From TrEMBL:
CDD domains: Cadherin_repeat. InterPro entries: Cadherin, Cadherin-like_dom, Cadherin-like_sf, Cadherin_CS, Cadherin_Y-type_LIR, Catenin-bd_sf. Keywords: Calcium, Cell adhesion, Cell junction, Cell membrane, Cleavage on pair of basic residues, Glycoprotein, Membrane, Metal-binding, Repeat, Signal, Transmembrane, Transmembrane helix. Residues 65-145, 146-254, 255-369, 370-474, 474-575 form the Cadherin domain. The keyword rRNA-binding does not apply. Gene3D superfamilies: Cadherins, TCF3-CBD (Catenin binding domain). It comes from Cyprinus carpio (Common carp). Pfam families: CADH_Y-type_LIR, Cadherin. This is Cadherin-6. One of its GO terms (molecular function) is calcium ion binding. Cadherins are calcium-dependent cell adhesion proteins. They preferentially interact with themselves in a homophilic manner in connecting cells; cadherins may thus contribute to the sorting of heterogeneous cell types. GO terms for biological process: adherens junction organization; calcium-dependent cell-cell adhesion via plasma membrane cell adhesion molecules; cell migration; cell morphogenesis; cell-cell adhesion mediated by cadherin; cell-cell junction assembly; homophilic cell adhesion via plasma membrane adhesion molecules; morphogenesis of an epithelium. It is a single-pass type I membrane protein.
Amino acid sequence: MSGLLMLPSTSLSIQSDGNLFHWNHLMEGDKLVLHRSKRDWMWRQFFLSEEYTGSNYQYVGKLRSDKDRGDGTARYVLSGEGAGIIFRIDEKSGDLHATQRLDREEKASYTLQAQAFNKITGLPLEPATEFIVKIHDINDNEPKFTKAVYTASVPEMSDVGTFVIEVNATDADDATYGNSAKLVYSILQGQPYFSVEPETGIVRIALSNMDREVRKEYQVIIQAKDMAGQMGGLSGTTMVNVTLTDVNDSPPRFAYSSYHLSTYESAEIGSTVGRIKANDGDEGENAEMKYRIVDGDGKEYLDIITDEITQEGVIVVKKKLDYESKRVYTVKVEVTNTHQDPNFTVLGPFLDTAIIKVTAKDVDEPPVFSRPQFVFEVNEDTPKGIAIGTITAWDPDATHYPIQYAIDQHTDPERLYHIDPKNGSITIIKSLDREVSKWHNISVLASEMNNPHQRSRVPVLIKVLDVNDNAPEFAMIYETFVCENVRAGQLIQTISAIDTDDPLVGHKFVFSLSSMNPNFTIFDNEDNTARILTRRSGFNRREMSVYYLPVVISDSDYPIQSSTSTLTIRVCSCDATGNMRSCSVDALLLSAGLSTGALVAILLCVLILLMLIFSAQRKEPLIISKEDIRDNVVSYNDEGGGEEDTQAFDIGTLRHPEVVESNQLRRDIIPEMLFPYHRPSPMKECADVRDFIISRLQENDTDPSAPPYDSLATYAYEGNGSIAESLSSLESSATEGDHEYDYLSNWGPQFKKLADMYISKDTGVAN
């Protein structure tokens, strides 16, 4: 088996039987002993230093085939990575050179193939052999940090050794070859506050009690050096910006031990007097503060509110200030942190106090009344000019100007009262009546004489007390009647009384008759009511239709007031059960205060109105069948239109006499229900026509089935014996032919109207 001999510049190799052997020089006693070891793999690697700086090509090694007889017929060819560009081989000698400066960090090894050919035949002398050229590392790269600038934060007041940040650097050199990539970290800037671990790059706190309020930010420079930090090693640096974060280690403090503020005494409640602020070196929620008043003679008048945005204490008015009574108000204010850290309580106390003095400034104030409102009581019978009370007010200012009083006339439109402008005394100038108004609400104005614009107002309530100055009277108008057939001792009326006065213990009325009455008596129920009873029986309205009974009503207050009210009692006709049927017309007239002529006129108007309503109703057909031909004669008992008036009667009654006995419904309304036929009760013999008419009128007014009219008609059948024959047109010819009516002119004046109607009609048609 043939082989290719490779002779690098750093080793001794011998080609034998296709195997490569390396001879090690060993000494055994005084003899040099050569031991052969088989190393057929050694020839496959070459080692070449990077960053060669010589002027000639860098020699790599020599390639030689055992088929090369040295006669110049062998030619060596190189292929693979960088062949012909980076690496070149001498075709004759097989010497291998690197033509470029190599960088291990760019490429650490190259794989190549070498083969020997016969120049003459061009045939390979042996198969191609692959080998590797490895680049030996030199320390030509400095360490580089992963970030040019690091940012870190750590709480202030942290303990020594507290972790801050870890920095990392890398070296492009070969870490497996020498110390070119072995890094060591050190701190160049930032001592004595921080330290760095040499091997890990961890930055830690090196100084205790680092206060953010003293210094907040630090710049630390860290160095990483290769060659294990030895002299001649390469290095790189980075910057770490360290910020101390806040903790609540600074208590709030007032800048001054006392503050002086001022405001006008007229300042409204809740208005701002001033602002104060304590200093706190912390920030965020650690700087949040709360203010409160803990002491002082002004605690009742002043208050403090915390402004959560500005962290200021706002002094406000809690109660009205008064310059005249107190000019300086002093309070002690305390400020504390709202979020305290128990780890730093040893640095406390986390509160501070200050004295706030507020000076009240004088303003010209309006008068002040001695009460917020005045209430007076006066009897309603108090004479005019009597004083009922006094209003008092004063000037609260130090000047103490005199006060003048006046009544607001808008609150006393009736001008019932007067006030003395100097002393404020209120007097009555008109009579008072409690029954008209129990309370009077007026307003009194007080103003300074030297400055009328400074004015105050106070309500004055005047209660008018009741005096028994009104007598009781009937509670209502009574319509009392007594039946003719009444028995003695019969109750005919219960009466009661009212009194506009308002006694403290309530009303108590006493009823009596002014004198002995033979017909009626009164019985006091002692509950402010009384019963009217009959003393006898056998009343007759023809003898006396109306009785007048004077009733005396007295109250029980002081002074006692009484009055006499007259009860009008009518005598009426009643049925056996005591229900009134009719009363004397004279009694009705007297009770209503009307004369007989006036009542007759009213009745006539009612009758005429009913007749007009009846005539407006739709009439039922007079004759339905032509076979039913009847005439009638109507007799009127009113001043009607004579023969020309044909609307005052309903001839349907003649054709249907049974309707008198049937259920008649009113034609002017829609009936809600059917009423049974009301047959009028027979009237007793009565010589008084007026009573008869009134009785019938009441029956018809209360009868829902009665038609809305009153009429008295007498009907009679004329028969067939009339010389004028029938006047009805129902027997006329069914044709529309012309008729002659001239003969109607010969019938006399009674038929003149009829003749004028038909003759003029006939003439008109002919024309």
